[in-house]
Amino acid sequence: MLKKIITGGQTEADRAALDIAIKLRIPHGGWIPKGRITETGPLPDHYKLQEMETENYFECIKQNVKDSAGTLIISYGRLTEDLDHARKSALRCGRQMLAIDFNQVDDAKAASLLNDWIRLYRIDVLHVIGPGAEVNPYVRNQTENMVEGALTMGSLTQ
Q1: CB 8, CB 32: distance < 8 Å
Q2: Of 19, 33, 56, 96, which one has the fewest beta carbons inside 10 Å?
Q3: Protein fold of 4-153
Q4: Residues 12, 18: Cα–Cα separation, whole Å
Q5: Residue ranges covered by each domain of the chain
Q6: pTM (two decimals)
């Protein structure tokens, strides 16, 4: 059973996952760089993320991977920079990882894959990382559809 969703709060995908956690009353959190820095400015206070002592986002990714049972990486094609760093961190830390490429699957299929993965590996703390709107303007909507769909599909939150 999923107990918590964590992200770095940096992108539309990250914040979409946090918003679904809030909507479904699932505890949320994660690590964010000092000053609550994101790609679009400071993260609003209603997101309950902890500030690290550093402004280095790679350190936040690494800590979020360590603090989770599994990392969901959302992409549109090849993993680049932050997303590839999350993949490498999951491998180094021995954590489960699921990569969803929205160029390859639709929201409903992605929700089903996520639901199955959470169940199979008994993911209790889920780390979500994905791109911002500059990569794809629909990332927020697709992330919300996938995460909410997965979590309500089999009552993973109860």
Answers
A1: yes
A2: 56
A3: Rossmann fold (3.40.50)
A4: 10
A5: 4-153
A6: 0.94
